[in-house]
Amino acid sequence: MKKAIYALIAAALLPVWGQESSDVTRLMQDPAVKAALEAAKTNEPGIIEEQIRISEIPAPEFKEEKRAAALKQIFTDLGLKNVRIDKGGNVIGERPGLSPSPNVVFAAHLDTVFPEGTNVKVTREGTVLKGPGIGDDGRGLAVIIAIAKALNQAKVQTPGTITFVADVGEEGLGDLRGMKQLFQDTLKGKIDRFVSIDGTAFGITNVGVGSYRYRVTYKGPGGHSYGAFGLANPIHALGRAIAAISDFKVPQTPKTTFNVGRIGGGTSVNSIAFEAWMEMDMRSVDMESLKAEDANFLKAVNQALAQENERWGNKGKLSVDIQRVGDRPAGNTPENSAIVQTAISVTTALGFTPRLGDGSTDANLPMSMHIPAITIGGGGGGSGAHSLNENFDTANSWQGTQRAILLAIALAQK
After folding, report:
1. Are 271 and 350 members of one domain?
2. With the C-alpha atoms ordered 103, 106, 110, 113, is the resulting torsion angle positive or negative?
3. 204 and 60 co-located in one domain
């Protein structure tokens, strides 16, 4: 029976890898595939409940363990094979195909931007769910569950294997640590195609925005603002650095940006600070532009130190501690690549307009390694990501689930 199902699907799928939407339309007529797409619609109310349940499990940066445990149990209940949590904290489960290759990874991230103690209770107003992380990435996690469930119910047997991953460290200072663990250790050399499901709607991200992030701390002896006047001041050095950074000239194309996002230091209004710090974010879609900006940043930081020390004759001489706390590589999966063309075809075949874009997602890492990779939205609508007012509109959200299912089947081909 399995061989018969495989023969039907394989015949429809052979032209799909990177081909036109007409080929995907033919694929959609296969009985097993049609059953999986119908299951997506039928299952959606239950999937929404899972989305709520998962989103109400706190998962601050570096503290994703409770949510990871929940996903591990879900993967096990779905009958996925070799379910485990790797040493980086990623939850992994496999849906074997007739062959281990190609191995297609569908991933969604466990972590949120919200600190420990945030109220993550989800509320409903009509079709709209409100709660921190409900879309980013509660939706992505719900959709990877939905894919596995629908494929099981429809008894779809794919030629290649689909591996589901609920990963850590996508947000903020997580610095893609889950992806680095996955690609550099856990599944090193075993991932042929990669799709991250992140957030809502129907976008396709094929350009990865790279970033460097720093925490810079100027340090000195500090003292009384009157009695010790004349000492070099860490806050003044910080100000010199920020003033220089604010005058950076960066290219519009390729888009390159900078931002001093947080500052701090000092003990009182009448004290010369013993410490002052800032956190800096630099981004670009082009690694060479990012590296050039990085060099300018380091030059500005060190010049500010020298200038402040020289201003006061090296009295109370300052030092500076420069820590790179984030390193996300830029990457690009070309528009004419097979994985992007397949995503476009699937989106078009389901009646939606494909829109390519750029972003900073889990797909950055495989893109930088020249592994075919994209990020897609999980359907539905949403706004307020990374805010306490984040919301997700469930109206017709099953359409996003259908797209993800069809894409998974299409990519799991020879």
Report:
1. no
2. positive
3. yes
374 strand-pairing partners: 195
- Residue that has been written with the tokens 């919301």 in this structure: 391
Q: Which domain holds residue 299?
A: 210-328
Summarised one tens digit per residue, pLDDT across range 221-250 is: 999 999 999 999 999 999 999 999 999 999
Number of domains in the chain: 2
- Report the C-alpha gap between 196 and 97 in whole angstroms: 20
User: Residue 407 is part of a domain; what is its CATH number?
Assistant: 3.40.630.10
Percent of the chain, pLDDT > 90? 93
Is the bond preceding 111 in cis, omega lying within 30 degrees of 0?
no
Burial class of residue 327, CB neighbours in 10 A (0-12, 13-18, 19+): middle
Cβ–Cβ < 8 Å for 263, 276? yes
**Chain-centroid distance, C-alpha 298:** 27
Query: Are 219 and 311 in a shared domain?
Result: yes
Phi, psi of 388 (to 5 degrees): -70, -15
Instruction: Specify which residues 356 forms β-bridges with.
Output: 204
* Residue 17 confidence (pLDDT): 46
Last residue of a domain, one of 328, 362, 384: 328
Stated pTM of the model: 0.91
**320 and 266 share a domain?**
yes
The structure tokens listed for 230 are 């004349």
Nearest by Cα to 406 from 362, 348, 355: 348
